[in-house]
Amino acid sequence: MSRAKFGREVPVLSPTDAAWLAGLIDGEGSVLLSRSGKSYSPVITVGMTHEDTILHVHRLVPGSMIHRQQQAKGWKDAYCWTVGGRRAVALAMQLVPYAVTKREQLMLLMRFPTGNWRGKLPVPETVKDEREGIYDGLRVLNRKGVA
Q1: What is the predicted pLDDT for the residue at 109?
Q2: Predicted model pTM
Q3: Band of the pLDDT at 116, cuts 50, 70, 90?
């Protein structure tokens, strides 16, 4: 598995590129909050077996790229692009006008309160509650199976 990380800020996308990426995320992507203990991080990801498409996404919005070698005989290699944290929130703001399937998830992600609470400063309870509510809302929207 190889990884590459580039870029700190989300570039402003053209309307065409934003619409294309929103459509790709609608069909092949995920919008979620990653949770580790009591810490949350917004995440937008796209995974597929078509490397050129993932490379194009990465050129539009540099993020993390993962290449997974085939997992079983007859399987294709898989590629995944991910953007997280404040960058995911900033990207969500550009994609919402064009998203259909993942529109509600992107709108919830946009509400994610970002702040500088690293280190010894405690995260305010109201922020913890808001993050938990967004996490729960995304879990409901992303649930698989019959409604």
Answers
A1: 96
A2: 0.87
A3: low
Count of domains forming the chain: 1
- Which structure tokens are listed for 23? 């459509």
* Residue ranges making up the domain that contains 132: 2-141
Q: Is residue 146 part of a domain?
A: no
Distances (CA, A) of 140 to 32, 51, 62, 67: 11, 30, 29, 29
Distance in angstroms (rounded) separating the CA atoms of residues 127 and 40:
11
133 backbone dihedrals φ, ψ, rounded to 5°: -65, -40
CATH number at residue 48: 3.10.28.10
Do residues 34 and 24 touch, judged by C-beta distance below 8 A?
Answer: no
Return the closest-CA partner of residue 85 out of 118, 115, 46, 43: 43
Count Cβ neighbours within 10 Å for each residue of 117-130 and write b for 16 or more, e otherwise.
eeeeeeeeeebeee
- Res 69: pLDDT: 78
pLDDT at 43 > cutoff 90 = yes
